[in-house]
Every structure is written in structure tokens, then in C-alpha cells.
Design goal:
By secondary structure, this protein is an alpha+beta fold. The protein folds into two domains: 93 residues; 281 residues, no CATH class. Helix content is 35%, strand content 26%. It contains eleven helices and 17 strands. Strands 1, 2, 3, 8, 9, 10, 11, 12, 13, 14, 15, 16 and 17 form a 13-stranded antiparallel beta sheet that branches. α1 runs antiparallel to α11. It binds 2-acetamido-2-deoxy-beta-D-glucopyranose (8 copies). The site of one 2-acetamido-2-deoxy-beta-D-glucopyranose (NAG) has 7 residues, from β4. Its main location: membrane.
Length: 500
């Protein structure tokens, strides 16, 4: 009797569990994922984060100027020849990692670049002709200075034989060559305005441990801040721009993001050379290596738009108006006042006039020139990425300096690069596939098991109970008959005794 009631209780428990799984399983999985991805010293994700088991690659395309003399003397458009790719394999590592008690981690980023002969189309020793960036920066900056300063500058450049174009190897352009102007500046300029180096290279000093100390949230306290920068060199904001919002740097480095990403999520990445947060919005679903499903995020099409198109960008124009043309981002404040403007390669999503101002640049193509990151939405891990940026120099014509008197106002493309990863190692993608496919299946299987088993047990138990109570009531009737007959017998007996 009690065992049947027990069976019913058990069946009800199973049914309740089934309901709980239907409603709460996703939340449970979320909890487990959040616990697993958070950066705990000794944890698996901590290992992957601190020493990513990926092979990042940077491909660099250099615009070789093939008509420097005609451009300067005859006023022709610059003719550019896109060379490359020059490919470097990278190794990333975080060093000097310190876990802080407030749920943050501080570290320095170490990157090592090794030239890959077999992946490249050309060698590091290829000689190219490119604009003399230190010189053109100096002359463009002197535009608003006193005239005698410009004349003095012209004679110094005469003595030092500085020309508006330099002939350097690709390796020198990237990693540094001795520049007479920087050398001079280092000796002359007062200490506090000093440039930090006397060599010039677009990636100068990057093949090492970065001196920048980064503090990010580990996600242990609050998973919604997972991977987001708390402090960069002790500061939570940039000093350059006009509003708090534009000075924010609380994005991630692009390798991890707060998990549970939906198509409505905006991802933010921060890079020092980008000089701002880059917002990324959902573009489409993609399948990446080893069939891992991901979501592609790209910069919103108006990130680098001019202030007429996107008035929000007004805060990035402290000296303006006029502000940067459509499709360009002025990073001069982050580059020691060099007039460097960033864009996407081939002026993707910028005004066509910029591209048509030079010869030899093909129209932009989305597949080749778009900046994107494919992320695994549940865990917030980058699966594939192409960070594509073009570096341009904004040259101003300065009549008083004879070397550049014929150099017109122009946005001069120097090079573009794509840095990224193609896929994660199999051990991680396998795990992701398991994590993405098993929980939903497990949920259905568990639901079926609990509902079917619980339901079946319940029906059986109830059935047995009903049958038993039915049998009991017949028994009870027989019993009362027996009692009745017994009474009759007793009455008969009594009657007999009375007769006697
Ligand atoms: C770059 O252009 C210059 C001038 O036309 C040429 O001499 C040089 O060979 C070119 N470099 C390469 C690597 O093609
Ligand atoms: C420069 O322009 C002149 C006429 O404008 C032309 O005759 C000459 O061939 C040009 N020189 C070059 C090197 O293109
Ligand atoms: C967390 O602690 C680190 C190191 O003490 C500090 O630099 C950082 O500002 C703190 N962050 C927050 C959000 O309190
Ligand atoms: C970067 O540094 C490593 C050693 O730390 C060296 O092997 C490599 O050649 C360097 N790469 C470049 C491009 O200088
Ligand atoms: C390699 O570079 C040359 C020009 O320097 C170009 O013509 C050729 O198409 C490039 N090859 C590849 C595979 O990109
Ligand atoms: C960055 O910080 C601001 C407040 O300072 C906050 O509103 C915003 O949500 C943060 N962004 C991210 C991506 O955490
Ligand atoms: C995305 O936002 C739209 C409207 O803002 C909303 O209707 C939709 O439910 C959101 N989707 C998700 C997955 O949050
Ligand atoms: C870039 O910004 C600097 C500093 O704000 C400014 O002086 C310069 O004129 C700007 N350049 C362009 C092309 O907008």
C-alpha cells in the first residue's frame, strides 16, 4: 500500500524534474559556461587566454610609388603599385600576469613577429619608394607656424638632404630605419616633447613585450565584463577626445568577448593604435573551421563617416571643423601629431574620390577589404578574424618649404594590413561543437526520459492503486456477508438453545 503511494510521489518528482529541465536547463548551462570561461588562474580558459594556441598572421600590402618624380615635378596623380603580401607569423603571450583581488587581471602583451618567406609574395629586402612620413609630418605641422620657422626648416632639410620620398626596404619601413630628422629632433627638442625614438618604422618596437600595462575584468565577479579593459596604463579613459563616451576604452582586445552574444549585441574592441573603441555589429551567421557555427561582426558602416553623415563623430574632431573626410579616422593625436589617418583597405566604405586621387588602386571588395571577427556566441570566443586597416598620410601643401612646394594637399595611402587568425586548434573546436550540440540534445533526451518515465510510473501506480482499492471494497463486502451469516448462525444457535 505505502509502496504504491511512494511510487506516485516518485513519479510526480520525475514529472517536476522534467518541467524544471524544460524551463531551467538553459539557465543551468549558462551558469556552467560562465563558470568555465571566466579567467581563473589554473583554469583551461586561462591557459588559452594567456598563451593563445593560435597562429595569428599579419599580411602587409605596401603601396610602392612608381612616379615620384613626375608627381612632384609634373603634377601627375601618384601612381601606386600594391606589393605583397609580406607575411609575418605571430606568437602572442601575456606576461607578468597578476590577479587582483577585485576581479581583474593585469598583464603586458608580448608579440613576436617572424617573417614567413613561403607565405609572402616578395622579400623583406624589396626596395620601395614611399612618402617620407617624418618629413611630411613636420612640414604639414609647420603650416600654421611662423614663416621664418618654415624657411629654417627648409634649409635644415636642404643640409640634411631630406627628400619627400624615401627609398627603403619593406623591412626598414616596418621595423625602423634611422631618420635624420628624428635624430635631429631628439637632440634639439626640449626633453618633455621628445619623440621616444630616433628611428622611424610603422611597426617600430612592436616585436617585443609592450610596455603598456593592461588591466581587464576576469569575468569571475561579473561575466558581463569578461575580457573588458578596466584600465590601460592605469587610465580608464583616453585623454584625446571631446566627450566621455568617445574617450572610453572599455572594450576587449578582440580575442574574447562577454559570452551569450545575440545579433542585437554590439561588441567593442580597443586597440592602442586605433586610438578609440571600435564598435562591431552583427552581419550574418557563418560556419568556420571544423563546422563551428559563428556570428560575423563587422564595424558599423558609419564608424569612420564624416560628421555630416554621422554627427556622433563630432567628438573625434577636437581641432575641427573641418574634420576628417568621409571614411577616414584622424589618429594624429595618438601618433605624436603625425597627420596619420586610418581607413579600411582601398578606402572601403569611404568616398570614392579618395581612391580616384591616386592611380593603381583597385575598387574595394567586401571579401578582401572588410574588417570582421567571427565569434562563437555562447562562449564569446573569436573563431576567425581579419583586422584590416589602411594607413594614410594627410599631406598639406606648404609653399615656403621648397622641397614640398609641389606636394599638393592629398591623402596619401602608405600601406594596408590584415591581422588575424584562421581558426582555433581542433581540441578547442571539438569542445565547442560538443558544447554547442550536446546541451540542447541532452535537454530533449532528459525531458523525454523524465516525462515518459514519470508519466508511465504515475499511470502504473495510479492504476494499481485503483485496482487495489477496488479489490479491497469487494473484500470488504464479502467480509460483511460473512459477518451477517455469522450473526444469522449465532441467532440460529441461540434459537436452538432457547428451544432446548
Ligand atoms: C618600387 O618602385 C620603384 C620605382 O618605380 C622601383 O624601382 C622598385 O623596383 C619598386 N619595388 C618593387 C619591390 O617592385
Ligand atoms: C611633364 O609634363 C610635360 C608637359 O606638361 C611633358 O612634356 C613631359 O613629358 C612630362 N614629363 C614626364 C616625365 O611625364
Ligand atoms: C582593481 O585593482 C587594480 C589593482 O589594484 C586597480 O588597478 C584597478 O583600478 C581596480 N579596478 C577596479 C574596477 O576597482
Ligand atoms: C622579432 O624578434 C625575434 C626574437 O625575439 C626575432 O627572431 C625575429 O626575427 C624578430 N622579427 C623581426 C621582424 O624583426
Ligand atoms: C605577387 O606580386 C606581383 C607584383 O609584385 C603580382 O603581379 C602578383 O600577382 C603577386 N602574386 C600573388 C600571388 O599575389
Ligand atoms: C563602458 O563604460 C560605460 C560607463 O562608463 C558603460 O555604460 C558601458 O556599458 C561600458 N561598455 C562596455 C562594453 O562594457
Ligand atoms: C533584438 O532587438 C529587437 C528590437 O530591438 C527585439 O525585438 C528582439 O527580440 C531582440 N532579439 C534578441 C535576440 O534579443
Ligand atoms: C587631425 O587632427 C589634428 C589634431 O586634432 C588636426 O590638427 C589635423 O588638422 C587633423 N587633420 C585632418 C586631415 O583632419
Amino acid at each position: 500500500m505505502t509502496s504504491r503511494w511512494f511510487a506516485i510521489a516518485f513519479a510526480l518528482c520525475l514529472l517536476i524534474l522534467g518541467v524544471l529541465i524544460t524551463c531551467g536547463f538553459s539557465a543551468l548551462i549558462r551558469l556552467i559556461v560562465d563558470h568555465q570561461v571566466a579567467l581563473r588562474q589554473g583554469g583551461q580558459s586561462f591557459g588559452w587566454w594567456s598563451k593563445p594556441p593560435v597562429e595569428p598572421i599579419i599580411r602587409i600590402f605596401v603601396y610602392n610609388v612608381t612616379n615620384a618624380d613626375e608627381f612632384l615635378n609634373n603634377g601627375s596623380k601618384p601612381a601606386l603599385d600594391e606589393l605583397g603580401p609580406y607575411v609575418y607569423k605571430e606568437t602572442w603571450e601575456k606576461v607578468d600576469i597578476v590577479e587582483n583581488p577585485n576581479g581583474t587581471i593585469s598583464f603586458n602583451q608580448k608579440k613576436v613577429y617572424v617573417f614567413s618567406e613561403e607565405l609572402s609574395n616578395g622579400s623583406e629586402d624589396d626596395v620601395v619608394i614611399v612618402p617620407n612620413i617624418p618629413m611630411l609630418s613636420a612640414t604639414s605641422q609647420s603650416k600654421h607656424a611662423a614663416r621664418f620657422l618654415r624657411l629654417a626648416m627648409a634649409s635644415i632639410m636642404d643640409i640634411l638632404k631630406i627628400k619627400p620620398f624615401v627609398e627603403v626596404s619593406v623591412g626598414q619601413l616596418l621595423w625602423g630605419y634611422e631618420d635624420p630628422l628624428l635624430k635631429l629632433a631628439k637632440d634639439v627638442v626640449p626633453k618633455e616633447q621628445k619623440l621616444p625614438y630616433e628611428e622611424f618604422g610603422l611597426m617600430y618596437g612592436k616585436n617585443s613585450t609592450s610596455p603598456d600595462r593592461v588591466t581587464i575584468f576576469s569575468g569571475i565577479d561579473d561575466i558581463r565584463k569578461y575580457g573588458i579593459i578596466d584600465k590601460y596604463n592605469g587610465k580608464s579613459h583616453l585623454p584625446h577626445w571631446l566627450s566621455e563616451e568617445c574617450n572610453r576604452l572599455n572594450g576587449t582586445d578582440g580575442s574574447i568577448f562577454p559570452p551569450h552574444i545575440t545579433p542585437n549585441t554590439t561588441l567593442y574592441i580597443y586597440d592602442k593604435d586605433l586610438c578609440r573603441l571600435l564598435p562591431l555589429v552583427y552581419e550574418k551567421d557563418v560556419i568556420t573551421r571544423n563546422d563551428v557555427k559563428g556570428m560575423r561582426f563587422t564595424p558599423a558602416s558609419n564608424v569612420f563617416a564624416d560628421v555630416e553623415t554621422n554627427p556622433d563623430n563630432m567628438c573625434f574632431c577636437p581641432a575641427g571643423p573641418p574634420c576628417a573626410p568621409n571614411g577616414l579616422f584622424n589618429v594624429s593625436l595618438c601618433q605624436y601629431d603625425s597627420p596619420i589617418l586610418l581607413s579600411f583597405p582601398h578606402f572601403y566604405q569611404a568616398d570614392q574620390t579618395l581612391r580616384l586621387a591616386v592611380d593603381g588602386m583597385s575598387p574595394p571588395e567586401k571579401e578582401k577589404h572588410e574588417f570582421f571577427i567571427d565569434v562563437q556566441p555562447d562562449m564569446g570566443t573569436s573563431l576567425r578574424a581579419r583586422a584590416r586597416i589602411q594607413i594614410n598620410l594627410a599631406v598639406s601643401q606648404v609653399i615656403d618649404i621648397k622641397q614640398v612646394a609641389n606636394f599638393p594637399d592629398i591623402i596619401f595611402p602608405i600601406l594596408w594590413f590584415e591581422e588575424g587568425i584562421d581558426g582555433l586548434p581542433d581540441e578547442i573546436t571539438d569542445l565547442m561543437n560538443v558544447a554547442a550540440t550536446v546541451p540542447p540534445k541532452a535537454r530533449i533526451v532528459l525531458m523525454i526520459i523524465f516525462f515518459a518515465l514519470g508519466g508511465l510510473l504515475f499511470v502504473i501506480a495510479v492504476f494499481c492503486l485503483i485496482r487495489r482499492s477496488h479489490r479491497q471494497s469487494t473484500l470488504h463486502l464479502e467480509g460483511s456477508n460473512y459477518l451477517a451469516t455469522a450473526q444469522i448462525d449465532l441467532a440460529k444457535k441461540k434459537a436452538k438453545e432457547n428451544k432446548k
